[in-house]
Write a structure and sequence with these properties.
single chain; 34 strands; elongated; Rossmann fold; Elongation Factor Tu (Ef-tu), domain 3; 6-stranded mixed sheet
């Protein structure tokens, strides 16, 4: 077998128009595998094969059901089709499902294909006039679609007529499609269309790899359709029945999964990279761009309830329009799908809407003339997913503008909008690629460009996390507001613990909060130390009883030296409440007269500074100190010695190595 291509060829067309027979004639594979299909003589479920294209490679083949009752199965398989073979029987011509299947293919983004006039061995007895009329009908059917310029090949699965010409035409279409392959560098997304058990191997799943790559040894999660398996190991991967080192986006893929049962991997679920479910996978709100087919019976109103086909899943949804109250037949809009249950989805994936539009204003006269040919159809429209894990939007100008940016062609505008809406957590290249239509590489470059233009800030280099400048500016304002609110309530100690201030400011990530504090401190709008944040300037001096109480507390600490009373003993010693004592201690710390060494111990500044000098001198001379040597140096018991040693570690004076401390660089 030649090398597998990253292209899938799929059939489409009315029931009993020879799709399965044509695939069997082309590939030698009978895609009707179910006993019920054999008995009834029609395809009930999508079937799969592979086709050798001489000089090019091997393409995957999907044979879809043609009966309208099995449209759900057709749609589930059609999402992976790159090149279509629209089959029309020579004796019957275009039929209702021919038209609907063509709509489905177009809405799902298929852009290349051929038209197969099947059962062509019947043409001689039907006459030249029949052939001519049939050709006209076909050209009218595909006018304005991706098949408008496609060749019409007369083929017969029974006699072999036209099969070489069809293969050549498919090869040309495949070559054209190869110029724009599915994104290999994007996040892994494999919608599952089958799962079954193989004796001796366990559970095997199949699907068309929409994006990313899959290799033996990878760990994956299963998303959507109620699947809950996490961290599943991929034992093996096959393409066209042969083991491969890696399956690539655009290939029909089979994966052997370890440690799960068949029911753990239902159709409608998808394989995604392990650990990415927060951004890829089970989403219930999707930003979308959609269109309503021109022959829809009536406009689509805001909040219409329909069925959405996403990947291989079918899920009830509410269609929320953001830029208008209703969508007329033939028009496009932006909006959201609010799904009835978590569903596997990724940006760039196309979807279909099916069902019956609620009664209301009727279609225009022009639309009524064209809808007759599709009167049977339940397919109403479709579009593409712009972003996943979205917040619910309202019909207002700002949300409409946001969606228009996501639907546009400017990746910088798309990335900036997604980054802005990511709020405090921001986005890494991986997160951006998972939410929007980016590969990890393109997301990284786009975020770097936003950083260069000043619209984004890299606040966590290790995790490559960026935040939008407007989000950081809003955080600055909130930090200052909460700090001044606290200062106004506590005249004794206007400072606030760093962690308490972070929580009051909306709990931004610690590294982002640290960036905000550093920026505000550089501008002189606050002061921050290791534990507390202070308003700018020197704290106002206390007066009256406050000053007397503070001096009394300072005297107690200074007199105690390196053996101070515990915090819970101080209120009784100075005649104050525990809350007031706590405020006085913080005020002394703000004035540089006391320091918190542990939760239960505060020391006067003079004693601590003297001890600091003694420790530096000892370490400069001897190189290290352990707990016993520290107790001998200071004459302290373990009750005070251990908290002081840990305090100097936190203050970056010493560095603990095993049981000993050494002087940090720069402290000699």
């Amino acid at each position: 077998m030649s090398s597998p291509l990253r292209v899938v060829v799929g059939t489409a067309g009315h029931v009993d128009h020879g799709k399965t027979a044509l695939v069997r004639a082309l590939t030698g594979i009978d895609t009707d595998r179910l006993p019920e299909e054999k008995r009834r003589g029609i395809t009930l479920e999508a079937g799969y094969a592979h086709l050798e294209l001489p000089g090019i490679g091997t393409a995957g083949v999907v044979d879809v059901p043609g009966h309208e009752r099995f449209l759900r199965a057709m749609v589930a398989a059609a999402g992976g089709i790159d090149v279509a073979v629209l089959c029309v029987a020579a004796d019957e011509g275009p039929m209702p499902q021919t038209a609907e299947h063509l709509d489905v293919l177009r809405l799902l983004g298929v852009q290349a294909g051929v038209i197969a006039m099947t059962k062509a061995d019947l043409l001689p007895e039907l006459g030249a006039e029949h052939r001519e009329l049939l050709t006209v009908e076909l050209r009218e059917l595909v006018e304005g679609t991706f098949l408008e310029e496609a060749p019409i090949i007369e083929v017969s699965a029974r006699t072999g007529k036209g099969l070489p010409e069809l293969v050549r035409a498919l090869a040309d279409a495949v070559k054209a499609r190869q110029a724009t392959p599915r994104p290999e560098q994007a996040p892994l997304f494999l919608p599952l269309d089958r799962s079954f058990a193989v004796k001796g191997f366990g559970t095997v799943v199949t699907g068309t790899l929409f994006s990313g790559a899959l290799a033996p040894g990878d760990e994956v999660d299963l998303a959507g359709a109620g699947a809950k398996a996490r961290g599943v190991r991929v034992r093996g991967v096959q393409v066209h029945g042969s083991a491969v080192d890696k399956a690539l986006a655009g290939q029909r893929t089979a994966a052997n999964l370890a440690g799960i049962e068949v029911q753990d991997a239902p159709r409608g679920a998808a394989l995604v990279q392990a650990g990415t479910l927060q951004s890829v996978g089970a989403a219930q709100v999707l930003d979308i761009e959609l269109e309503l087919l021109p022959w829809a019976a009536r406009p689509l109103r805001n909040r219409a309830r329909l069925l959405a086909h996403i990947g291989t899943a079918q899920v009830p949804c509410v269609v929320a329009l953001v830029d208008r109250a209703e969508l007329a037949p033939g028009e496009r809009a932006v909006g959201q799908l609010r799904l009835g249950r978590p569903t596997a989805a990724i940006a760039g994936l196309r979807f279909l809407l099916r069902g019956e539009l609620p009664k209301g204003s009727d279609a225009s006269p022009a639309t009524r003339l064209t809808k007759a040919a599709r009167a049977h159809a339940s397919t109403l429209g479709g579009g593409r997913i712009l972003a996943v894990a979205a917040r619910k939007r309202r019909r207002r100008e700002s949300d409409a503008a946001a969606l228009q940016a996501l639907a546009g062609e400017d990746p910088l505008a798309q990335a900036e909008r997604l980054l802005l809406e990511s709020g405090y957590p921001g986005a890494s290249p991986q997160r951006l690629a998972a939410r929007g239509a980016f590969t990890v590489k393109s997301a990284e470059k786009t975020l770097e460009r936003l950083g260069q233009t000043g619209k984004a800030l890299l606040y966590d280099r290790e995790a490559r996390l960026y935040v939008h400048k407007e989000v950081l500016e809003a955080l600055d304002g909130k930090v200052l507001a909460r700090l001044h609110e606290h200062a106004a309530r506590d005249s004794i100690d206007p400072s606030i613990a760093r962690e308490e201030l972070r929580q009051r400011a909306g709990s931004p990530p610690p590294k982002l909060f640290a960036k905000a504090l550093a920026s505000l401190a550089d501008r002189g709008e606050l002061r921050a130390d290791a534990e507390r944040v202070h308003p700018p300037g020197t704290a106002a001096k206390l007066s009256g009883p406050d000053a007397d109480a503070q001096e009394k507390l300072a005297g107690v600490l200074e007199k105690a030296g390196l053996s101070p009373p515990r915090v819970d003993e101080l209120p009784a010693l100075i005649g104050q409440t525990p809350h007031r004592t706590s405020s006085l201690l913080k005020a002394l710390a703000g004035a540089g007269r006391a320091s918190k060494v542990s939760e239960g111990l505060w020391f006067g500044a003079t004693a601590l500074m003297d001890l600091r000098r003694r420790v530096i001198a000892h370490l400069s001379e001897r190189g290290s100190i352990d707990a016993q040597s520290f107790k001998e140096l200071t004459g302290l018991t373990r009750k005070f010695a251990i908290p002081l040693l840990e305090y100097f570690d936190r203050e970056k004076l010493t560095l603990r190595i095993g049981d000993k401390r050494v002087l940090r660089k720069g402290e000699r």
